[in-house]
Each structure stands twice: as C-alpha cells, then as structure tokens.
Write a structure and sequence with these properties.
The chain has 398 residues and is α+β, with helices and mostly antiparallel strands. It has 2 domains: 163 residues, no CATH class; 142 residues, Heat Shock Protein 90 (2-Layer Sandwich), CATH 3.30.565. The longest helix has 81 residues. The chain starts with 8 loop residues before the first helix and ends in an 8-residue tail after the last strand.
Length: 398
C-alpha cells in the first residue's frame, strides 16, 4: 500500500494496542464464532494482523485501508473470529469517512445503510427467525454507526476550519482597513499641513531673498515686516493643527474653521505678500446663490484658492492674479488665474505637492479640476486653475 507520509504516532499506538488486545483475546479463547471449516484458532490471527497493519494507514490511505479491511473482516467470519478485528474495522470505517475525500464521506454512509438493510433482509430470509435481526444490528454497529459518527465529526471539523479561516480573513481585512485608514489619515494631515503653512513660508522665502539681495533699508524693513507677519501667522496655524491632533485624533480637515467668508482676508493677505513681486490680487464673487455650503466643500474651495495664490506668489509673472467664485445650480466653480512667464526678482522653489493635494480634495468631493496654460483672446498666456465642486452633502466620498 503506497504512502507518501509516515504513519501518525496515534495510528501506530492504535495498531499496537489493537494487535496486543487481539492476541490477548485469542489466548483467552472467547471467540466470536465457531463451527466453520477454517475453525483452527490460529487462522483468526491472520485477519487480526492485516487489520492491525491497516490501522497504520488510517489517515494516509483511508479508503484503500477500508477496502482491504472489509475483505479481512469477511475472511474473519470464516475463522473462530476475534472481537479486536471487528473493533479495529469499525475504526477503519470511521477514519475512511473522516480523513477520506468529500465524495467518499458522502457515499460510505449510504453504502453502509444499504448493506445493513440487505444483510438484515437476507438473514431473515435465510434463518427465518426473529433472532436473525441481531445480525442486522451487528452489521449496523460495525459499519453504519462508525460511518455516521465520522460524518458528524467531519462536519464539526469542517465548520471549525471554516470559522478559523473566516476569523483569519476578518483579521486580515481589519488589518488592511487599519493600514488604509492610517495611510489616508497621513495623506490628509500632509495635505492640510502643506496648505496651511506653504503660503506663509513661500512669502517668507521670497521676501527674505529680496531683503538679502537689495541693499535698501526701506525695502529690507518692509520685507522684514512681511516676514514677521507670515511667521506669526504660520506659527499660529501650526499650533492650531497640533492642538487638533492632540485633542483626540480629530480630523484636521473637518475641524478647520476656514470658510468662503474668509476669502477676502486671504486675498488681501496675498495682495500684501505679492506686492513686491509685481502681482495684483483681486477677488470676484459671481455666485448667484450666497447660501451656506457643506463644510467639506467650503474647506476644499478655500484650500484650492490658498494653494493657487501660493503658486502664483512662487511662479507667476508680474500682472493680475484673479480669484473668481461662481455657483450655478449644484456646482460651485473656483477659478484662479495668473500671468504665465518669467519674472525678475526672487522666486521660491516648488515641489508639485500642492497640485496633488488640490486634485485629492476635488476627487474626494466627486468634482473636477483643471490646471494648466490657457491662451486668452489677446494671445497672452495665463496659468489657470479651475475646479467644479458639487455642493450636495451626499457627493462627498468616504
């Protein structure tokens, strides 16, 4: 009987105990039957030995062990018999259902009940006595009962394995959700930190460069004033953000207090910071409806304008920087345009993180955004950022 695995130690123990018990019963002499042609007592040791060896393969080759064990049990009926042989056969039947293929686990109980019925009917027809029913009972105890027990244990084992796999899957999904939540939270924090501080740091970088490169006390004093103002405001923004994070993990985006009503102040601050670069910032509010908007929409619109003004301060050529707000039906339109081209004087470096942050904000709201060069009717090139944001609460994505 081929096997690719060594017998389990429990199977070795079952085989050894069964063989020793069978030898002990054989020596004591309580045989299960007699009067057959092969009634020589030692002949019953052959089926006993075969079934004992088959116990070694009850896990590795259960179906093959059952088939050979069945032949050994039939052969045992033509000897004086041994109770240990019958008991070990019941274990082979149980193991064939428990460790065999799913098809075997379904078929064996059906086959054993059919055999039990056939043996019972045959015994009654042959012996024609009520005592013949005992043969059917013994057949059921040796075949059907261990088979149905194996089915029950296998079902419980499969249910336990399914529950374990489901628990592992749940744990894996929970870990994936946790990882995604941490990543999303870090992205939100990075986006908010960039938008809150980049504007002030850009102004500080440009005016400090101007103060160092232009040997003019009035210019230096003006630049230092702008630097101090932006430093204080940037520090306040940082403190507010740190306070929100320490307050119990509140979402810095949803907790921010900025609204579209603060755009006038934002544009005025940008006008002051950009004056030395030849930029003139203006704000046009062309909304048909002035009603309140969902907080995520107001925050996203504010941050888009803030980042666009910061980019204009870094890169725009001298000329107008126009901020426009519009609302038509369910869409809020945010547009910021500035002159594209080279400009004299200091410039602050950019990393592209601001555009990424704006696209992320718009995507979370289910809106659209465009950023790039646009040629005006007069042939001039301007850099325009235009975003369309749905103003309904239900459009915000998780």
């Amino acid at each position: 009987m081929p096997s690719h695995r060594r017998p389990h130690r429990n199977d070795v123990l079952i085989a050894a105990v069964g063989l020793i018990s069978g030898l002990f019963l054989w020596m004591l002499g309580p045989h299960t039957q007699g009067g057959w042609a092969l009634a020589t007592p030692w002949v019953s040791l052959l089926p006993l030995t075969v079934v004992s060896v088959l116990e070694l393969f009850r896990r590795t080759a259960p179906q093959t062990a059952l088939v050979i064990g069945t032949l050994a049990l039939v052969a045992d009926q033509f000897t004086v018999g041994n109770l240990a042989t019958a008991l070990m056969f019941t274990d082979l039947m149980y193991a064939a259902v428990l460790y065999g293929t799913p098809a075997a686990a379904r078929r064996i109980p059906v086959i054993t009940i059919l055999i039990t019925v056939a043996v019972t009917i045959g015994s009654l027809a042959w012996f024609r006595t009520p005592q013949a029913l005992l043969i059917g009972v013994v057949t059921a105890m040796v075949s059907f009962l261990p088979a149905i027990t194996g089915v029950s244990v296998r079902n419980h084992r499969d249910a336990a394995e399914t529950a374990r796999l489901r628990a592992d899957q749940t744990a894996l999904l929970a870990e994936m959700d946790r990882t995604q939540a941490v990543t999303a939270e870090r992205t939100r924090m990075a986006r908010e930190l960039h938008d809150m501080v980049a504007n002030h740091l850009s102004a500080i970088a440009i005016h400090s460069t101007a103060a160092l490169s232009i040997d003019d006390p009035a210019t230096s004093r003006e630049a230092l004033g702008v630097i101090r103002e932006n430093s204080v405001e940037g520090l306040d923004e940082m403190r507010r953000l740190i306070g929100l994070l320490r307050a119990g993990g509140a979402d810095p985006e949803s907790s921010a207090s900025v609204t579209l009503a603060s755009l006038d102040t934002l544009v005025e601050q940008a006008r002051t910071n950009a004056a030395s670069s030849g930029l003139t910032c203006t704000f046009e509010d062309a909304r048909d409806e002035q009603g309140p908007l969902p907080a995520p929409v107001e925050l996203a619109a504010y941050r888009i304008v803030q980042e666009s003004l910061t980019n204009a301060l870094k890169h725009a050529a001298p000329g107008p920087v126009v901020v426009r707000l519009g609302r038509a039906g369910r869409l809020l339109t945010v547009e910021v345009s500035s002159v594209f081209g080279d400009r004299p004087g200091p410039r602050a470096p950019g990393s592209g993180a601001g555009l990424v942050g704006m696209r992320e904000r718009v995507a979370l709201l289910g809106g659209e955004i465009e950023a790039g060069l646009v040629t005006t009717g007069g042939g001039a090139e301007i850099w325009r950022v235009r975003a369309e944001l749905p103003v309904e609460e239900g459009t915000v994505r998780a």
